[in-house]
Amino acid sequence: MTKDLEHKFIAEFEKNQNIIHKVCRIYTNNQDAHNDLFQEITIQLWKAYPKFRGDSKLSTWMYRIGLNTAITLYRKSKRTIQTQDFDSVLHRIQATEYDATEEEQLKIMYKAIHQLSDIDKALIFLYLEDKNYTEISETLGISEVNARVKMNRIKTRLKKILNP
Predict the structure, then answer these.
(1) Contact 99, 117 (CB under 8 A)
(2) CATH class for the domain made up of 102-164
(3) Which of 45, 56, 59, 37 is nearest to 10 (CA)?
(4) Which of 72, 80, 93, 76 is nearest to 23 (CA)?
(5) Do residues 126 and 139 touch, judged by C-beta distance below 8 A?
(6) What one GO molecular function would you report for this record (predicted)?
(7) Distance CA 91, CA 81 (A)
(8) pTM for this structure?
(9) Could you confirm whether domain 1-101 is CATH 3.10.350.10?
(10) 46, 106, 119, 127: most buried, per Cβ within 10 A?
């Protein structure tokens, strides 16, 4: 990777890293797991960045890589996570700490979201990020109609979880 491309990646990553923190928050239950997943997603973004053509928005591409990485790594809890050496670039990226002090309602919502399937978690996550159904369907690789139907079912399920 050229130095210009490397600098561009670091700048874009630092500007958009909250996307990755949010994905990690949905798929992990503690700070160590959050940090591990954050690092693995960062590595996957780094490896894929030279192939990013700009066909979609960078944020959509980051969501897709982040969600796919999280789903792949956490779908099977018995699977050992293989990490790669990222020290050569990591020292140049300024990671901001994710503020873990959330309101009680947010904790309850995350607890309910954790009960959903991996794909449903990804869909509700994108919905809560104010992504439209076109962006959601592109990110998850499903039809827009399917995204709408799934979202309605997820909303119904979350209402039942939150108001038994």
Answers:
(1) no
(2) mainly alpha
(3) 45
(4) 72
(5) yes
(6) DNA binding
(7) 22
(8) 0.59
(9) no
(10) 46
